[in-house]
Amino acid sequence: MVQDSAQQAPSVTPATPARTLMPTILPALAVGILSSLVLVGVEVAAEELQNVLWGPLPDALGIGRYSVAWMFVMLFATGVAVGLVVWKAPGHAGPDPATIGLDAPVLPPVVLPGLLLVTALMLAGGPSLGPENPVITVNVALAAWLGARLVPRAPGRVWPALAEAATIGALFGTPVAAALVISEALAGKETRGLLWDNVFAPLTAATAGALTATLIDHPSFDLDLPSFGRPDWSDLLAAAVVAAVAAVLGMAAVRAFPYVHGVFRRLRHPMLMLPAGGLVLGALAALGGHLTLFKGLEEIAELARDPDSRSAGEYALLTVVKLAALLVAASCGFRGGRIFPAVFAGTALGLGAHALVPGVHPSIGVSAAVLGLLLAITRQGWVSLFVAAVLVASPAIIAVLCVASLPAWLLVTGRPQMQLRPDGTPVR
Questions:
Q1: How confident is the model at residue 6, as a pLDDT?
Q2: Are 330 and 336 in contact (CB under 8 A)?
Q3: N or C terminus of the chain: which is more exposed, having fewer CB within 10 Å?
């Protein structure tokens, strides 16, 4: 029997006409450039302040720059300064950072100055957090506020997507990371049109953000580890084991997160929570040394400069202390993201695996450990693969990491995330 021709025709997703996409280019470029400038501005300001706080100031006081006493003083003082801003600034520098991930809420503009200030203070003072979460939050709010006034006919939901993509592109110096995050987010939503139609405007914003950051700040993630050639079966086994161990270690921190957060939450007031967190971070810095301070990007370059300079025990100590510092800083109220400290912890763990078993190539150990930790802490599969791969300048590592991601993902999927609901219960 002859079927109706309409029934025989394959289902085709309709494409968006070019005339619909072209008007999004200029707003996307504007959001991308603005978001990148905000990120670079915060990081440059924080770096200048850090150079003073951890250089001429302790020198003038006759105290060692990274002595135990100065690390205690600086981390406690940072807790006091951030706590004062959170207490007194309009909007209290935004909601509890433990409740915020990469998908930021749209805050009123009055909150943003306080949030920018506490982010710069945190980055300069030494707590183990990165700039990504608060800067994305600021850029989302700015884009939504300006977009509603300058392009009132545009859908309101488009501005947060553009700002998030632009900031991620600027953070990593490439729009690829943003494209991966967008595609992962779209996978859980009902969307119309082709994938590239949906990512066209965010990818444009991410490209503008990445190019702006690259031209101004020159971000780089290549650790210049020993060259990695053609992988063999032992490399696949090593990567799978290291990634799984890292995922388990990351999940231990995730499991502890609501309990540590609850301890600080009982203090109730930011002038108690944040200084107390600073004291705990000072104790951890005394245990792990100055490499466990700050967001960790420059510190991982120092670790990777000579992979064989430390023992497996020393690398294990750096890993545990950095994870604990991340856990405390994210729980007590410091505004910051968790990706960069997790990269440091993964780098230390991977180099520790190489020190313990010399047959584990440093590039394999580092990339696999970073992959496993990021999967546990961020639950962002594409971002975890991307960050782990860019640390090692070798195309061959990508196939190895794809294999290693499978057992690691089975260990983390469906379990609590390192993000809490307002009532303190973990997000799943």
A1: 46
A2: yes
A3: N
Residues 6 or more apart in contact with residue 381 via CB below 8 angstroms: 184, 375, 405, 409
Pairwise CA distance, residues 113 & 107, whole Å: 11
The CATH 1.10.3080.10 domain(s) of the chain lie at 233-412
In the 8-state DSSP scheme, what is residue 409?
H
Place of tokens 């040394």: 289
Which residue has tokens 């993509």?
165
In the chain, % helix, strand, coil (3-state, to 5) comes to 70, 0, 25
CATH of 233-412, one of 1.10.3080.10, 3.10.25.10, 3.40.50.1000, 3.40.50.1100: 1.10.3080.10
Q: Which of 282, 331, 275 has its CA nearest to residue 79?
A: 275
User: What is the rounded distance in angstroms from the CA atom of residue 133 to the CA atom of residue 377?
Assistant: 14
In DSSP terms, which residues pair with 130 in a beta bridge? 337
Instruction: State how far the Cα of 52 lies from the Cα of 59, in Å rounded to an integer.
Output: 10
* Residue 126: half-sphere exposure toward Cβ, Cα within 13 Å: 31
Q: Which of 348, 391, 75 is nearest to 224 (CA)?
A: 391
Q: Taking Cα atoms as reference points, which of 217, 201, 141, 191 lies closest to residue 166?
A: 201
Spatial CB neighbours of 246, under 8 Å, sequence gap ≥ 6: 346, 349, 350, 368, 369, 370, 371, 372, 373, 376, 408
- Considering 207-216, 278-287, 292-301, the range whose residues carry the highest mean pLDDT is 278-287
Tokens of 416: 């609590």
pLDDT in tens, 359-382: 888 889 999 999 999 999 988 888
Separation of alpha carbons 102 and 136, rounded Å: 7
User: Burial, 99: exposed, middle or buried (Cβ in 10 Å; 0-12, 13-18, 19+)?
Assistant: middle
Q: Is residue 423 very low, low, confident or very high in pLDDT (cuts 50, 70, 90)?
A: confident
b (16+ CB within 10 A) / e for 102-131 = bebebbeeebbebbbbbbbbbbbbbbbbbb
Alpha-carbon gap, residue 17 to 124, rounded angstroms: 47
Nearest residue to 290 (alpha-carbon basis) of 48, 51, 71 = 71
Do 162 and 32 form a contact (C-beta atoms < 8 A)? yes
Q: Which residue has the tokens 């999004």?
A: 24
- In terms of Cα–Cα distance, which of 170, 167, 46, 53 is closest to 118? 46
